[in-house]
């Protein structure tokens, strides 16, 4: 990540109410990923919604399932009701759904819509990127939807008075390591922005920090 982007990232963490040392550490933690993704690829191969791919004798349809990331896809084989769910549906944990100060403005709603898209398929066998394969995608989808609705309820109940991103993050996740805090802040923001964009709260800036309050 270039210096200007890192400086902007730090400013955003400051606006979330993070202490200066934590904002610096979070920005530095982000820059640590750069050696793993550079140099950037010079040739891009794009997959599109509905595209059909063949693995061996089976055909899989590309399904656009954003939420965990803007460009996330899953692969569906209708014949055997098999879904390669990538990071979209995991068996034991919820995939991290974060707002990263860029990209989709409402990643949590994108995630909900993607889950409901898969729900219509009534998939029997799921092969995730993390954890063991499991059966009954719809059962897990309901669990994930309920989990995030519970989090939205908790945050909404705690924003009768203005609440900072840092305070909301501590309510949801408690106190974490720097690496864990990075994901926790992103996920907290995703829930706050969901409430904002669904007209359940307002957002304002005071003394350089963002606050959210129910309406």
Account of the protein in words:
The structure is a single chain. With 215 residues, this protein is α+β, with helices and mostly antiparallel strands. The protein is 43% helix and 19% strand. The chain is built from 7 helices and 9 strands; from the N terminus they run H-H-H-E-E-E-E-H-E-E-H-E-H-H-E-E. Strands 1-2-3-4-5-6 form a 6-stranded mixed sheet, with no helix packed on it. The chain has a 3-stranded antiparallel sheet with strand order 7-9-8. Helix 2 packs across helix 7, helix 5 crosses helix 7 and helix 6 crosses helix 7. The protein is globular and about 60 Å long. The two termini are 37 Å apart.
Distance between the termini: 37 Å
Low-confidence stretches: none
SS-based class: alpha+beta
Strands in their spatial order, largest beta sheet: 1-2-3-4-5-6
**Helix-strand pattern, N to C?**
HHHEEEEHEEHEHHEE
Tally of DSSP helical segments: 7
Which radius of gyration do the C-alpha atoms yield?
19 Å
Total strands: 9
Q: Tell me the helix content.
A: 40-55%
- How does the overall form come out from the CA principal axes? globular
Helix and strand arrangement:
Elements: H1 3-15, H2 20-31, H3 34-37, E1 52-55, E2 58-64, E3 73-77, E4 82-86, H4 107-119, E5 125-128, E6 134-135, H5 137-157, E7 163-164, H6 165-173, H7 178-197, E8 201-206, E9 209-214
Parallel strand pairs: 4-5
Antiparallel strand pairs: 1-2, 2-3, 3-4, 5-6, 7-9, 8-9
Helix pairs in contact: 1-2, 2-7, 4-5, 5-7, 6-7
């Amino acid at each position: 990540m270039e210096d200007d982007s890192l400086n902007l990232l730090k400013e955003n963490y400051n606006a979330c109410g993070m202490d200066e040392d934590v904002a610096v550490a979070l920005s530095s933690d982000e820059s640590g990923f750069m050696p793993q993704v550079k140099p950037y690829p010079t040739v891009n191969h794009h997959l599109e919604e509905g595209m059909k791919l063949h693995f061996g004798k089976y055909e899989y349809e590309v399904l656009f399932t954003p939420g965990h990331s803007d460009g996330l896809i899953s692969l569906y084989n209708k014949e055997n009701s098999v879904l390669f769910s990538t990071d979209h549906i995991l068996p034991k944990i919820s995939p991290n759904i974060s707002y990263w100060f860029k990209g989709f403005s409402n990643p949590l709603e994108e995630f909900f819509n993607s889950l409901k898209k898969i729900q219509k398929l009534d998939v029997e066998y799921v092969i995730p990127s993390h954890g063991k394969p499991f059966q009954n995608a719809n059962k897990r989808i309901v669990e994930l939807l309920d989990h995030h609705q519970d989090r939205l309820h908790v945050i909404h109940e705690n924003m009768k008075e203005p609440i900072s991103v840092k305070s909301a993050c501590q309510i949801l996740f408690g106190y974490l390591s720097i690496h864990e805090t990075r994901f926790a802040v992103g996920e907290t923001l995703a829930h706050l922005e969901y409430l904002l964009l669904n007209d359940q709260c307002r957002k304002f800036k005071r003394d350089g920090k963002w606050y959210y309050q129910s309406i």
